Amino acid sequence: MVSSFLEHDPHARAGKGTPSARGREGIRFPRLTLSRAGFPCKPPCLCFGRVEVLILGCGHLGARVARALRARGVHVRASVRSEAHALRLRALGVEAAAEADPVRLPRAWLRTTTHLLDLIPPRGTRDAAVWADALVALCPRLRWVGVVSTTGVYGDHGGARVNETTQPRPSHPRALARLAAERRWRWAYPAVEVFRLAGLYDEERNLLPRLARGDYEVPRFVPPNPSHRVHTHDAVRALLVAMEKPQPGRVLNLADDDSTPHERYARALAQAAGLPAPRVILAHEAARKWPARRWWFFQDRKRVDNRALKALVGGLVYPSFRAALPELVARFRGR
């Protein structure tokens, strides 16, 4: 017998309820045969019942989440900035609208949305998720909200380890805006789950094309500055499992086990692909000549604890970028 996507509808039982109460309702996935990436080997034909997932700011990560949900038979809608991107999502079976303001999405979408994933990068602290309150009011069936943030909100900890209980102290405007978005969502929907993302990479998005140009620069820190990444497959797996097993108010770091400094990471990629080694410049030189947004990515010193992530998903498919190197290189050479 096919199991339902959500076996219980709290609104049919007891009305709208509070955000915290609604946040406990999760997605019930059936047992599936999984590929190495953690996704179904064959898309199942399943009826999941009354579940509508809305992905805001459905870029690279969002498209991977949408594809994985569609493979499970889930109805997915998405907002994007361009009609060209909307067309690509529609080809995946996703209803997509080119609309920057979530509140202006079709009312029929919002009225039936049960699960919402916010991937919109805030431009600044003033505009960070300013529409969250209004959006929650327009989504009466909302049961789960997830917002993707960044490990950058922790700031500089001198190379010490940070975990989900560490007090954020962001040191640059981009991280400040992300933290503002987290807080605005907590005010609008207390059960919101926050996912703090490290540097995202996969076979489609990585440093290899930039290394191939021969002019890629990396900063050298003394002592070396830890750097964390996470493969898109593992990030998607975490988001799907969190929908399936909700924990109201959860904060989760999405980072792998490897804190290899960026300089060594770039050198390893170049060597594996037979590309020119990156040009090394001293950190103070990079801080002076690089655009601020690029420098911000490297300046904080911390090691990111990912034990909660591994407990949730049962271990990472890609615990280090080294596990993905053959796939990255093969895809780059075959492009």
Q: Keywords, please?
A:
335 residues, Rossmann fold, 13 strands, disordered N terminus
Describe the overall structure.
With 335 residues, this protein is of the alpha/beta class. The longest helix has 16 residues. The chain has one domain: NAD(P)-binding Rossmann-like Domain (Rossmann fold), CATH 3.40.50. The N terminus is likely disordered. The strands form four sheets. A seven-stranded parallel beta sheet has the order 3-2-1-4-5-7-11, sandwiched between helices. The protein has a two-stranded parallel ribbon with strand order 6-13. The protein has a two-stranded parallel ribbon with strand order 8-10. It is globular.
Principal-axes geometry comes out as: globular
Level-1 CATH class name: Alpha Beta
* SSE arrangement, N to C: HHEHEHEHEHEEHEEHEEHEHEHHEHH
Describe the sheet with the most strands: 7 strands, parallel
CATH architecture call: 3-Layer(aba) Sandwich
CATH fold name: Rossmann fold
**Cα-atom radius of gyration:** 20 Å
Level of helix content? 25-40%
| Helix/strand structural class | alpha/beta
What is the element layout, followed by pairings?
Layout: H1 10-14, H2 19-22, E1 52-56, H3 60-71, E2 75-80, H4 83-90, E3 95-98, H5 107-112, E4 115-118, H6 132-138, E5 144-150, E6 161-162, H7 173-188, E7 193-197, E8 199-201, H8 208-212, E9 217-220, E10 229-231, H9 232-244, E11 251-254, H10 262-273, E12 279-282, H11 283-289, H12 292-299, E13 303-304, H13 307-313, H14 321-333
Parallel strand pairs: 1-2, 1-4, 2-3, 4-5, 5-7, 6-13, 7-11, 8-10, 9-12
Helix pairs in contact: 3-9, 6-7, 10-14
